[in-house]
Design brief:
By secondary structure, the protein is α+β, with helices and mostly antiparallel strands. Helix content is about 50%, strand content about 15%. The protein has a domain at about 1-125.
């Protein structure tokens, strides 16, 4: 049995949010997951902590899932849990280690959504927040457009339902909100 797992706070901001810094003669490139505003810094720090505790510490159990296609790599953060599990132990690892990580990632996501909702009620006239909202909406549309064009379920759906119904399903159900 094979398991392909991706848990992430996917970056939706434009690639220029990428920063490059050098430490101990090693160049490290990292992409900001959240807007650069200080009010999101605690979420970035908590996400980094979660990644270290639930992913990096268990690389022997949750090995890196392999290369991500270049067109898709911008949609993965440096905090992704990206792994491929095989064999008898795979399901047990999914039910324990992966599920524990999922719960912690999800709790942080929900905390952030509550924070954003509360902030939105106070920042409606703030021009920086309006700019951030437009950047986030554009980033979301970029991701959804990428997913619509490269939906990994397309071949399976085409085999099951034919090309016409598959394209209708992908464009009108799965990714309906995208402006074409």
């Amino acid at each position: 049995m094979k398991h392909l797992i991706a848990i992430d706070f996917q970056p939706i901001l434009a690639p220029p949010q990428t920063t490059i810094h050098t430490t101990n003669s090693t160049t490290v490139q990292s992409q900001n997951v959240f807007p650069s505003s200080l009010k999101y810094k605690r979420f970035e720090m908590e996400l980094e902590r979660i990644h270290k505790e639930y992913v990096l510490q268990y690389r022997d159990v949750l090995p890196w899932g392999g290369d991500i296609p270049p067109k898709a790599s911008r949609f993965f953060s440096p905090y992704a849990l990206w792994t491929r599990l095989q064999g008898e132990d795979g399901l047990g690892i999914v039910q324990t280690r992966v599920f524990e990580a999922f719960k912690v990632y999800f709790d942080l996501y929900m905390e952030m959504m509550i924070f954003v909702d509360q902030e939105q009620q106070h920042d409606d006239d703030d021009s920086d927040e309006i700019t951030n909202k437009h950047m986030i909406l554009n980033g979301t549309n970029d991701y959804l457009t990428y997913r619509r064009e490269n939906d990994p379920a397309r071949p399976m759906l085409t085999r099951l339902y034919g090309p016409e119904y598959t394209e209708q399903l992908i464009s009108q159900v799965l990714f309906e909100m995208i402006e074409s």
